[in-house]
Write a structure and sequence with these properties.
Spore Coat Polysaccharide Biosynthesis Protein SpsA, Chain A; ten-stranded mixed sheet; Glycosyltransferase family 2 protein; transferase
């Protein structure tokens, strides 16, 4: 009832100005919490009277009720040691909200986004010291903090000019490259399977370490496919999977046979379009704390198909919030141009470390034979502390429509059961994805929404940078 009244009052969806005004009005009701000292950037904090200390950069100013909202968010959180907020970017037509994800150590390393404003508990600041900028101080202070100590408050607490982020740096390929086992579930479709195999064997720079290619064949009858397998004998292995279609069971068949240090799940409708994609994914997987890596996927028309998966979208399940955007889209705050942590990535192209697989276990063929198996696997891995990374620097084309068929009958009933299982196991109907702002509606095409109350602070993403 309250949400409906807000829609009628503000319009649906609210504009950026309406969303900011709503947030600041909610901030006016904030009460309680510790005292704050907000100082000019770089000022000596040691004489500041408050337990919590923040720094304002030149040209930045506190938004309405910011101090009250921050203080109230810290009330009753004795383990908190660092909190950062959203930012409102000053523009000629009015401020524009920059709505941030929960703390992402990889994105912080590349962009320094977790500030404007950050507040530090005095003992943490005493231990860390000022590192020349708010971003560098946050990065240093965040190292070693546990989930309850590092919080993000989705409140636009600072108004100031836009500041360009540095370009996403190149990562050197691991030396030596790990041996990658590529698992390709497939059936018939000779043009598709020939394209993906050619891309792996001829168009991918593997840095002198050829991948182990395992095609898990689910009953192909096309003679062209049989001829292709015969031509490539010795370069690929074909594992016969003569059972009713179950994507997870096919993946598990390949994983059980794989011998590589890293395991790459690859749909048979993927096309390699640049040689360095696998080296980039391996470089990301080599980062400490990383268990899973996903690439940027484009549709054949060049629009974006996959830039990560957000849980809770699409009636409380999971979805690709940026799908359909131009392939070169920057995304909110330029996030689509930087590596970042996410809750999940698609199984159409997913690189998994051997350690992550052994800890997480196989894909769940009983509950997720058709859909959401990739989301379930990623969420189980995250719960164990493995980071899930998406990179814009590994780009592939996904001919998704070439293999997708409309679900009817038993397949539709199974799909509905798998949606229910995802909600039951991972609370995707109610839990807020830390990679996604609660100020966005939980739709497959996200838009701003008006909230009835300020969102609570939330913890950081798993995995170290």
């Amino acid at each position: 009832m309250i949400r409906g009244a807000l829609r009628r009052l503000l319009g649906h969806p609210p504009s950026a100005a309406q969303m900011l005004d709503r947030a600041w009005r909610l901030g006016a009701a904030a009460r309680g919490g510790p005292a704050l000292s907000i100082l000019p950037e770089g000022a000596d904090w040691r004489a500041a009277p408050a337990e919590w200390i923040g720094f304002l950069a030149p040209q930045d100013r506190l938004a309405p009720h910011a101090a009250a909202a921050i203080s109230a968010a810290l009330a009753g959180r004795p383990d908190a040691r660092l909190l950062f907020t959203d930012t409102a970017i000053a523009r000629p037509g009015g401020p524009d909200p920059w709505l941030k994800p929960g703390f992402d150590p990889l994105m912080q390393e590349e962009t320094g986004y977790a500030g404007r404003i950050a507040v530090f508990r005095r003992d943490l600041l005493d231990a860390t010291g000022w590192r020349g900028s708010e971003a560098a101080t946050v990065s240093a202070a965040a190292r070693g903090l546990d989930a309850g100590a590092l919080l993000h408050l989705p409140y636009p607490a600072v108004i100031g000019p836009e500041r360009a982020w540095p370009a996403s740096p190149a990562l050197p390929a691991p030396r030596p490259m790990p041996r990658v086992s590529v698992i390709i579930p497939s059936r018939d479709r000779p043009v598709l399977i020939a394209t993906v195999l050619r891309g792996l064997l001829e168009d991918t720079d593997t840095r002198g370490v050829p991948p182990e290619i395992l095609v898990v064949d689910n009953g192909s009858t096309d003679p062209e496919v049989a001829a292709l397998y015969a031509r490539l004998r010795g370069r690929i292995r074909v594992l016969r999977h003569d059972a009713p279609f179950n994507f997870s069971a096919m993946v598990n068949h390949g994983l059980e046979a794989a011998t590589g240090e890293a395991l790459l799940l690859l749909n048979n409708d993927i096309e390699v379009t640049s040689p360095d994609w696998l080296a980039e994914m391996c470089a990301c997987l080599a980062r400490p704390g990383t268990g899973i890596v996903g690439p940027k996927l484009l549709f054949p028309d060049g629009t974006l198909q996959h830039a990560g998966v957000v849980t809770g979208l699409g009636a409380g399940h999971a979805g690709h919030p940026d799908a359909g955007s131009p392939g070169a889209a920057l995304g909110p705050m330029g996030r689509l141009t930087h590596r970042r942590r996410l809750s999940a990535v698609t199984g159409a192209a997913m690189l998994i470390s051997r350690a992550c697989l052994e800890a997480t276990g196989p894909f769940d063929a009983a509950r997720f034979g058709i859909a959401y198996n990739d989301v379930d696997f990623c969420l189980r891995a995250r719960a164990l502390g493995f980071g899930v990374t998406w990179t814009p620097h590994a780009v592939l084309t996904h001919h998704e429509s070439a293999t997708r068929r409309r679900r009817t009958g038993a397949a539709l009933r199974q799909f509905r059961a798998e949606k229910a299982a995802l909600r039951a196991l991972h609370a995707t109907g109610t839990a807020e994805d830390p990679a996604f702002s609660p100020w966005y509606a939980r739709r497959l095409r996200p838009e701003l929404r008006a909230l009835a109350a300020l969102p609570p602070p939330r913890a950081f993403m798993p995995g170290d940078a």
